[in-house]
Amino acid sequence: AEAKFPVAILVPGHFNDHAIGRIDRAFRRVRIERADPSLVTGEMREAVRGVASFGGINAAMIDALPNLEIIANFGVGYDSVDANHAARRGVMVTNTPDVLTEEVADTTIGLLINTVREMYAAEKWLRDGDWVKKGNYRLSRLTLRGRRVGIFGMGRIGLAVAHRLEAFGLPIAYHNRRKVEGFSYEYHTTLKGLAEAVDTLICVAPGGAATEKAINAEILSALGANGVFVNIGRGSTVDEAALAAALENGTIAAAGLDVFADEPNVPKALLEAPNTSLLPHVGSASDHTRRAMADLCVDNLVSWFGERRPLTPVP
Ligand code: DGY
């Protein structure tokens, strides 16, 4: 049997089976229903030195665990972990970058084409029997041909999306806090500037206070009536009421969304908005990639407790 660290790892809520198996081989695992400080027992307070979690670790939860050394976040986005408070408390935070980059980029392209060519509605047409009853599905109003694409958030995933879009022959521009040296893509210093220059906006930006509701009515209206918005990043980045209104009023033409502000709840206005393809946060959700993320999440814990060296600490 593998050597076991004499350390307890807290796992709040649902967690990846593969990661659970690995945690159980290397550590003592304690679990609670959800990351709620009131569920932490006195015994847990003493024993827990690591947390493995699919997001959702706030300051109160960190403070409830005085011997906590590391939070291993399952996922590249760690906006739901209070990393600033963790840093103040000297708690290491790790995430799972790189291993999901290509998968999320694939999903993004799929969602873009699905949205623009109305595949979600065409499939419904077939399944509902309308092909037989009413004839061919209508011609899609939109096309990728001639589109100008803007990427909000040119990190690892944004770049993998851009590489794929190059093969489509579409011009690419981007907005980031900083210009990325060595890119040939057109840089815009503001999101508004980017939205004015393109008609297709793909949001890959991280969540958190810096991007909260950045995609608002003004940005959507800058995309124009032919505008398509795709979100693979975080729902918190979007003013969802403004987006639903923009779709309803024809301010933009269509939207493809994999993420929402209050998951798993999707606002009724978005469920009812026209020309919209909605996915239940599946960007990285293949068995292959979730296994790789699980391994990296647990490898961070093993490396920390073995060598005091996290593999992928957050900045
Ligand atoms: C991530 O890695 O951030 C994905 O959204 C899965 O949580």
Automatic annotation (TrEMBL):
Alphabetized Pfam families for the sequence: 2-Hacid_dh, 2-Hacid_dh_C
Record keyword NAD present: yes
CDD domains: HPPR (cd12156)
Xref: InterPro entries: D-isomer_2-hydroxyacid_DH (IPR050223), D-isomer_2_OHA_DH_cat_dom (IPR006139), D-isomer_DH_NAD-bd (IPR006140), NAD(P)-bd_dom_sf (IPR036291)
Signal peptide region: none
Sorted UniProt keywords: NAD, Oxidoreductase
Domain D-isomer specific 2-hydroxyacid dehydrogenase NAD-binding, residue spans: 109-283
Coiled coil: none
UniProt keyword Oxidoreductase present: yes
D-isomer specific 2-hydroxyacid dehydrogenase catalytic domain location: 48-314
Origin: domain of life: Bacteria
Family membership noted in the UniProt record: Belongs to the D-isomer specific 2-hydroxyacid dehydrogenase family.
Protein name: 2-hydroxyacid dehydrogenase
Organism this protein belongs to: Mesorhizobium album
